[in-house]
Write a structure and sequence with these properties.
The chain is an alpha/beta fold and 917 residues long. It contains 36 helices and 33 strands. This is Pyruvate, phosphate dikinase.
Length: 917
């Protein structure tokens, strides 16, 4: 310990009049916004904010930093002067609230304690002063309750029980039916609970109450829930929380007082109007706690017209000032309005788009800001199929069984089954099923794959069911605790007693978390119809949401630098990709082109013992492949189409070993062994791999199976030449998968160039065809400088690159332990959903830099699923890729996010007060 502690001179405490909304780092969100309201001259009860720096110092030293107590005392003295009351004055006490408030609002932080400063003496002073003993005792019992629960960590139910017991004894229902004497009695009971739990009396010294509450806020920064949340959300542990100390204003003094919350627009739809709830004679969280029925805000006009008009004026002012929807807390004390909190409010996806464009029309923000204000995640919400329960629809009367967490969006209908075995069995026979479990575990994987949707009664958003379902893109509602799932008796019981037996149809809405009995009709949302081209944004029947999406997308397209392509293997997907705004195909897989009837040719190819047999098999495949490419290149006329040569291990094209063994055994028992089957069996055995993912696949296949890649290249070349002759504009790009060294690529490249030259010669058509490679092995990224010598483009296959970088086999790990990893906070989101920027992303960066160092005009893209993930798109923009490629349905999301990141980038460069959320 040094004697000249620098902390002595650090300013830790700021009056509300000293800050503004941009000081969230120092004052936390709540404090910065309270200061802003003071700056605007709004009626905010006086108070001060203890900075996040004080919290950091406290957490570091384990004790309150030097100087803090003095600064708090000084600000308290000013507060006492302003209010003309003293903390702890037995005759006329000043009361305050202590409220946590970090930069980001966060679960696990200490809940607010109101009425600090009351004790056995001052409660009488307050009663006399206000001429309202009921109010005084009500405030005191609330203090003990909140302080006991949040500062002293006493189980809140103890207090709830005591309150219930009293009401029962008095034969009353509502808290308003308790009079002063009742509440005084309750205070006695509460104090007894405190004594029992802590071994000492409820602290009577108001300064001790205040100091303990401040300490508790600081400590709550490191509560388990807060730590876990920060680990998952990657919020730095160093930020710390601020503490706000605010003079109390009272909504619980009688019917001319009350408390409320309001929004400047409807957070559900974005519509303009008066939205909020008000509760007379109430304090703090009463209004949202559901203890009594609130009234809609509009009714405040009848209750207290003056306050109502004033509130509406302030709402308009705040919205104009923040240029956004604001969420507001207020209290009315005997006809005087007080503002207790404001912040930019949360909203639904539809509201976000509508509000952003409304604000443009009102001249509050420009078109660029509108794009920044919405997100790809919100656009996704608008694109999921949903149940049609609108008035007049067949689904209007759908019976809701219950609600759980929206774990993985979508709308699924099927027969309820209660174990995975049944799910698989029924789905094999063509039934649609919903897998209903209390919770799932790795053994349920096959059942989850077979099901249309998954419903569990336990577990949160990182439970096994939720994680695996999201990974599969499958609809899931989890943690529907009100539904009683009995897997033994194969039934589900809703709270209203409705029983769903195995085989009964249910409908599961993964976006809202609602579960319905029976089949609810599904509809394509209007936003999808718009992207499909079936609904014109300017048409009369298009609603304002579609128009808003159209405007935002148009602006995003204007400003984005990243191109967006699709991963599409079929003509149908290619056409949809074009409709959705795709600018080419970034990944056309060819494996499905070797399945079905063509499998026999592949078998012949694998079994070929000499060049002639091999040539025959390839000759049979050539026209089929050419036809495939003719179709795809026609669908993508004028746009680049990246065709990936065959990638999966060969055994995937051979019959299943068990089936084959049975066939051979049966044939042998009949004494009629089939020569071909025997050879097939041998081939399957010799191709068997311990780790197919790391085995003979990709470029390795092209090198080991003579003629295979040549066949594909020839088919591409011939199709291209033919289309050019027809006056079309095919733009094929030939992509070699799983390259790890430039030597591999050099060999394939030389062969391919030879084939291309031959076809050019034969057809007399000279056509361009880029040859490039996927970068999906760490070694490829590290040696990208060499590989670029033989590649005209790179495409990062981030699915495999994630697998090979982490050493994860996705199919195995997601079901086996990802939920545990998420719960432990090892990652906040699966690296298969959002690119692991620090690891895999670094390889993308290195690969791009080294590749372009060798070949400055190297085209670089990405074709993993990450190409349609918002955060990942931002990263790819920053690394300077040319395009992302994603599933057709994700194209709008990628377009939007590519526009957003370009705009956020501009702001950052311009250095303007960037407000990028
Ligand atoms: P949260 O962050 O959970 O909303 P708040 O600090 O806003 O917590 O407070 C909880 C409740 O107490 C809110 O309804 C708020 O308006 C109310 N409240 C906070 N401080 C005061 C005060 N000084 N006077 C009256 N009510 C208050
Ligand atoms: Mg709250
Ligand atoms: Mg609040």
């Amino acid at each position: 310990m040094t004697t000249t502690d620098p902390a002595q001179t650090t300013k830790y405490v700021f009056d509300f009049s000293e800050g503004d909304k941009d000081q969230k780092d120092l004052l936390g969100g709540k404090g910065a916004n309270l200061a802003e309201m003071v700056r605007l001259g709004l009626p905010v009860p006086p108070g001060f904010t203890i900075s996040t720096g004080a919290c950091r110092a406290y957490l570091e030293a384990g004790t309150v930093p030097a100087g803090l107590d003095d600064q708090v005392a000084a600000h308290l003295a000013t507060l006492e002067e302003t209010r003309g009351k003293k903390l702890g004055d037995p005759d006329d006490p000043l009361l305050v609230s202590v409220r946590s408030g970090a930069k980001f609002s966060m679960p696990g932080m200490m809940e607010t304690v109101l009425n600090i400063g009351l004790n056995d003496a001052s409660v009488h002073g307050l009663a006399a002063q206000s001429d309202n003993p009921r109010f005084a005792w009500d405030s005191y019992r609330r203090l003990i309750q909140m302080f006991g629960k949040t500062v002293q960590h006493i189980d809140g139910e103890r207090f709830e029980h005591a309150l219930e017991e009293l009401k029962e004894r008095k034969g009353v229902h509502g808290d308003l039916d308790l009079d002063a004497a009742d509440l005084e009695e309750l205070v006695g009971a509460f104090r007894e609970i405190v004594r029992e739990h802590t071994g000492s009396d409820f602290p009577q010294d108001p300064r001790e109450q205040l100091a303990a509450a401040i300490d508790a806020v600081f400590s709550s920064w490191n509560s388990d829930r807060a730590v876990l949340y920060r680990r998952q959300e990657r919020i730095p542990n160093e930020l710390g929380t601020a503490v706000n100390v605010v003079a109390m204003v009272f909504g619980n003094t009688g019917p001319d007082s009350g408390t409320g919350v309001c929004f400047t627009r409807d957070p559900a739809t974005g519509a303009q109007g008066v939205y909020g709830d008000y509760l007379q004679n109430a304090q703090g969280e009463d209004v949202v706690a559901g203890i009594r029925n609130t009234v809609p805000l509009a009714q405040l006009e009848e209750i207290d017209k003056v306050s109502y008009d004033e509130l509406l004026r302030i709402m308009a002012l705040l919205e104009g000032h923040y240029r956004d929807l604001c969420d507001i807390e207020f209290t009315i004390e005997r006809g005087t309005l007080w503002m207790l909190q404001t912040r930019v409010g949360k909203r639904t996806a539809a509201a976000a788009f509508r509000i952003a464009t409304q604000l443009v029309d009102e001249g509050l923000i420009d078109a660029d800001e509108a794009v920044r204000r919405v997100s790809g995640a919100q656009l996704v919400q608008l694109m999921f199929p949903r149940f049609d329960t609108s008035p007049g629809s067949a689904g209007e009367k759908a019976q809701v069984l219950g609600r759980g967490m929206s774990a993985s969006p979508g709308a699924a209908v099927g027969k309820a089954v209660f174990d995975s075995y049944t799910a698989v069995k029924w789905s094999r026979s063509g039934e649609k099923v919903i897998l209903v479990r209390r919770e799932t575990n790795p053994d349920d994987l096959n059942g989850m794959i077979a099901a249309e949707g998954i419903l569990t009664s336990r577990g949160g958003k990182t439970s096994h069911a939720a994680v695996v379902a999201r990974g599969m893109g499958k609809t899931c509602v989890c943690g529907a605790e009100e539904l009683n799932v009995d897997t033994k008796r194969r039934r589900l019981t809703a709270p209203d007693g409705t029983v769903i037996d195995e085989g009964d149809v249910i409908s599961v809405d993964g976006s809202s978390g609602l579960v319905y009995a029976g089949e609810v009709p599904v509809m394509a949302p209007p936003v999808v119809e718009y992207f499909e081209g079936a609904l014109d944004a300017d048409a009369a029947e298009a609603d304002d949401l579609v128009r808003a999406v159209d405007r935002v997308m148009a602006r995003a397209d204007e400003v984005r630098r990243l191109r967006v392509r699709a991963n599409a293997d079929t003509v149908a997907d290619a056409e949809r990709a074009r409709r959705f705004g795709g600018e080419g195909i970034g990944l056309c897989r060819t494996e499905h082109m070797f399945l079905g009837e063509r499998r026999q040719h592949v078998e012949r190819l694998i079994l070929a013992e000499d060049d002639e047999a091999r040539a025959q098999a390839l000759d049979a495949l050539l026209p089929l492949q050419r036809w495939d490419f003719l179709q795809i290149l026609t669908a993508m006329d004028g746009l680049p189409t990246t065709i990936r040569l065959l990638d999966p291990p060969l055994h995937e094209f051979l019959p299943n070993i068990t089936e084959l063994s049975v066939r051979v055994a049966l044939a042998e028992s009949r004494g009629e062994a089939n020569e071909n089957d025997l050879r097939l069996m041998q081939a399957v055995h010799s191709l068997h791999e311990q780790n197919p993912m790391l085995g003979l696949r990709g470029v390795r296949l092209g090198l080991v199976v003579p003629g295979l890649f040549d066949l594909q290249v020839r088919a591409i070349a011939e199709a291209t030449a033919q289309l050019i002759k027809m006056g079309r504009d095919p733009q094929p790009e030939i992509m070699i998968p799983l390259v790890g060294s430039v030597q591999e690529l050099e060999i394939i490249r030389a062969d391919s160039l030879k084939v291309l030259a031959e076809v050019a010669e034969q057809t007399g058509v000279d056509f361009p065809a880029l040859i490039g490679t996927m970068i999906e092995l760490p070694r490829a990224a590290m040696t990208a400088g060499q590989i670029a010598e033989a590649a005209e483009f790179f495409s990062f296959g981030t699915n495999d690159l994630t697998q090979t970088t982490w050493g994860f086999s996705r199919d195995d790990v997601e079901a086996a332990f990802f939920s545990t990893y998420l719960e432990m906070g090892i990652f906040g989101v699966s690296p298969f959903e959002t690119l692991d920027v620090e690891g895999v992303g670094e390889l993308v960066k290195i690969g791009t830099e080294r590749g372009r160092a060798t070949r400055p005009d190297l085209k670089v893209g990405v074709c993993g699923e990450h190409g349609g993930d918002p955060d990942s798109v931002h990263f790819f923009h920053k690394v300077g890729l040319d395009y992302v490629s994603c599933s057709p349905f994700r194209i709008p999301v990628a377009r939007l996010e590519a526009g957003r990141v370009a705009l956020v980038d501009q702001l950052a460069e311009g250095g303007a007060g960037a407000d990028s959320r």
